Amino acid sequence: MKKESEKELDEYIASSVKDAEELLEKLCTIPAPSGYEDERAAFIKNWLDDIGAEGVYIDEAKNVVFPVAFENGNGLVCFEAHTDTVFPAPTPLNYVRDGDKLLCPGIGDDTANLVNMLMTLRFIVTRKIKPRRGVIFVANSCEEGLGNLKGTKRIFSDYAGRIERFFSFDGDYNRIYTECVGSHRYRIELKTEGGHSWGHFGNTNAITELSKLIVKLSQIPLPVKDGKKTTFNVGVIGGGTSVNTIAQNAFALYEYRSDDADSLHLMKERFYETLLAFKNETKAEVSVELVGDRPCGEAKDKLLQEEMINRAVKICEETSGLECKRISGSTDCNVPLSLGVAAICPGLILGGGAHTREEWIYSDSIKVGMKIGAKIILDYFEL
Ligand SMILES: [Zn+2]
Asked: Which residues are placed with Cβ below 5 angstroms of ligand 1, an ion?
């Protein structure tokens, strides 16, 4: 970036903090649980139309998509920040300023990141800055939990084979997601005839049978691979009717995770083997439903991936003065990485309490994050 462009950007950022805070408050108070992002999506599309962005559309997955330039159809760069939050509709979305902090459920994950991406978009659109190659900006849906990355999956299906580099802005600027953790999540349900605990003693008990299955699932040997990690968890159980009823039904939510695609695959095989063997032993009726599917993988072009990481880390550290740690996690990058596309997830805010009602960010971090986002994005624009 040229000296005078950098100066213009700094002036823009200094004069945009107030607008960013207003937009943040507005967006934070529009409920957007995964799958129900309609109102936020409509608001963002209007906002983009108002600043003069052309060709913005909302797709079937409720992504707001802004394709910037497409003369050369491949090698696209995609920038995303997600609109959805983990909070169900009735959650009160109170936006509060407390000293140097701003608080609201969903503020850091991911609304403030989204706002900082939108602020750079306004800089680009109002100054008619040309991209060096095709760029797509997406305010995407369904990043969280059982949203199962539906928004990003949709982008990679609509633009199949055309995206070369992917950036998701999510989380804090003192860390960067460079590797992804994939997971499969299941609801396992057992049904039996049940009965009276005295009168029908001896009938099969769904809770007892589920307990046996959980023990077996916990004995599945984990794949061992250098530098890779695989885990499993039974997170929720339920079922039964009363203390004197032989349980007719019982269920468990079970997941396994790995930062290695082969290990994830192996866990899937072992899970189904265990389940089938158990089915042959038990009198209970066993059913299983896949409720979560987050793929994982690695970029095919390792050099490109490394180049993107190094550049983003440099920008984060130089701008914030903080160390930027490389970490792995489950983010929208899971989708591109599972397809071999280079993808990283830097953050544009600093805060805490993600996924709690006490979620907060440092208000000062908006300005720092806006600059980080702008520098990462503007690498792909003529300045
Ligand atoms: Zn997030």
From this structure: 109-110, 170
The pLDDT tens digits of the residues spanning 189-244 come to 999 999 999 999 999 999 999 999 999 999 999 999 999 999 999 999 999 999 99
CB neighbourhood size of 199 (10 A): 9
The angle subtended at Cα 329 by Cα 325 and Cα 330, nearest 5°, is 150
Categorize the per-residue pLDDT at 383 as very low, low, confident or very high, splitting at 50, 70 and 90: confident
Indicate the fold that domain 3-181+296-378 takes in CATH: Aminopeptidase (3.40.630)
User: pTM here?
Assistant: 0.89
Task: Output the CATH code of domain 182-294.
Answer: 3.30.70.360
For 141, the token pair is: 């849906």
Question: Distance from the CA of 243 to the center of ligand 1, in angstroms?
Answer: 42
**Residue 144 Cα, ligand 1 centroid: separation in angstroms?**
7
Give span(s): CATH 3.30.70.360, the chain: 182-294
